[in-house]
Amino acid sequence: MTSSGMSLDAANVMSTSLEGILYGFSILMFMCTIWALTYKCRLRDVNRPITVVAILLFVMSTAHIVVDIIRAEDGLVKYRDTFPSGPAAYFGDFTLKTYATKHALYLLQTLLADGVLIYRCYVVWHSIWVIVVPSVLWCGVAVTGVFANYSISQTSGSEDIFAKALAQWITAFFPLTLATNLSSSGLLAYRIWMIQHDISTVHAMKSTMMPIVRVLIDAAVLYSAVLITLLICFLCSNNGELILLDMAMPIMSITFYMVLIRIVINRKMTYLSTIPGGKIGEMEQGTLRSLEVHICELRPMTAPQSMQ
User: Fold this and answer.
1) What DSSP designation does 67 have?
2) Distance CA 131, CA 207 (A)
């Protein structure tokens, strides 16, 4: 099937530019995340698994944009006059190692981000049965993603990404990714809302957990909007899907960082607003602790010496 929309070289320029803008914002979010993970924490109290995940997301996003910059330089400058049929043909050549590398990085980051989201659901619900459906969907994402990348690596440079042999795996990959994200985010947000509702019912005090629900929903909506638009572009054989695919890399990192930072802020606010012996603070701290995305064991502030 012949692609439509802008040319591949123009799409590459736009995708690299937009990815660079979002990547710059993700660097800021990553710095805030690392600060939140380490601020006023002893080394042994830092949540190492979450720190490793945050670093891996940053590393993969960085590697992806580096590969895109290399491809842009090669296609538009280095091989502009020597590659057969020019830059547009260069960016459509699946046999290039850089093409396979960038798509492998996208698959790895997708699996990591969705896997962490499913793990959060398991920790908050304390039940393996709740994550059965998201886990099955995650396995489907892994299978279709691997086969899609393998099929691309086995094609000749003359084939189109929208060819039926390739499209069947790609069109299965994006809906499965979307379903995994929505189901996991929905379960996580619903569980936190249930706990907040129980707290509000028992105690006539305002809970500080609803901002977490709102951020979870915002993150899910943002990422889902990208996936839906990307899938529509692909089904329409529009080269705009290349732009959205590159933009999805930093967006995945940004959504992870924004949720983590919001939870950290809430945990600190809950400690500061806790009345000694109060049940609200204890219940909320237990919930935030069970998310396994907190930073270190914060302690209530002691009264100044002048007040004792």
Assistant:
1) H
2) 26
